[in-house]
Amino acid sequence: MWLIAQDYPNFHAAVDCVEAFMAGQPQGENHPQHTLTPGLYSRRLFMPALAVVVSKIHRREHQYVVLSGSATVVTESGAVLVRAGYSGITPANTRRVLFVHTNSEWMTFHPTDQTDLLAIEDDLILPRQALPEALTTLSP
């Protein structure tokens, strides 16, 4: 893993390199299951064993549950091993890299009044190029 041994100016630069490397690799099909209820959108995602996944950047914090499997989640704060039954909160404007150890399913939960999937994604997901500006707005 030559990517890990590099000296990056910050975490996002390292994740950008992982993402660029993964873009050149064969990609599996990923078809999340979407569920809408009044005021809540949830997404269930299957990730195969040995996958490397770079998360999307969410505008607002949200909850997630690991339904099955195990993965190491790398964030700016470090790495943690999560297994089926684990639940957590993803802070707003963060990225993560998942190293999936065994076939895994995760479910995320997002408050929204939107009912169109494209509108929901536009409302929830922050484009990578907007991240520095978003982090600036979090500073006092």
Query: What's the N-to-C terminus distance?
Result: 37 Å
Q: Note the total helix count.
A: 4
Q: What is the CA-based Rg, rounded?
A: 15 Å
Largest sheet: 7 strands, antiparallel
CATH architecture of the domain at 31-127: Sandwich
Flag low-confidence runs.
133-140
CATH class of the domain at 31-127: Mainly Beta
Give the CATH superfamily of the domain at 31-127: Jelly Rolls
Mean pLDDT comes to 84
> Any idea of the CATH topology of the domain at 31-127?
Jelly Rolls
Structural class: alpha+beta
Count the beta strands: 9
Record keyword descriptors for this entry:
single chain, Jelly Rolls, 4 helices, 9 strands, globular, disordered C terminus
Short description:
With 140 residues, this protein is an alpha+beta fold.
Can you put this structure into words, describing what you see?
This protein starts with a helix and ends with a helix. It has about 140 residues and is of the alpha+beta class. It has helices at about 1-5, 10-25, 115-125, 130-140, and strands spanning about 35, 40-45, 50-55, 55-60, 60-75, 80-85, 85-90, 95-110, 125. The strands form 2 sheets. Strands 1, 2, 3, 5, 6, 7 and 8 form a 7-stranded antiparallel β-sheet that branches. Strands 4-9 form a two-stranded antiparallel ribbon. The radius of gyration is 15 Å and the shape is globular. The chain is built from 4 helices and 9 strands.
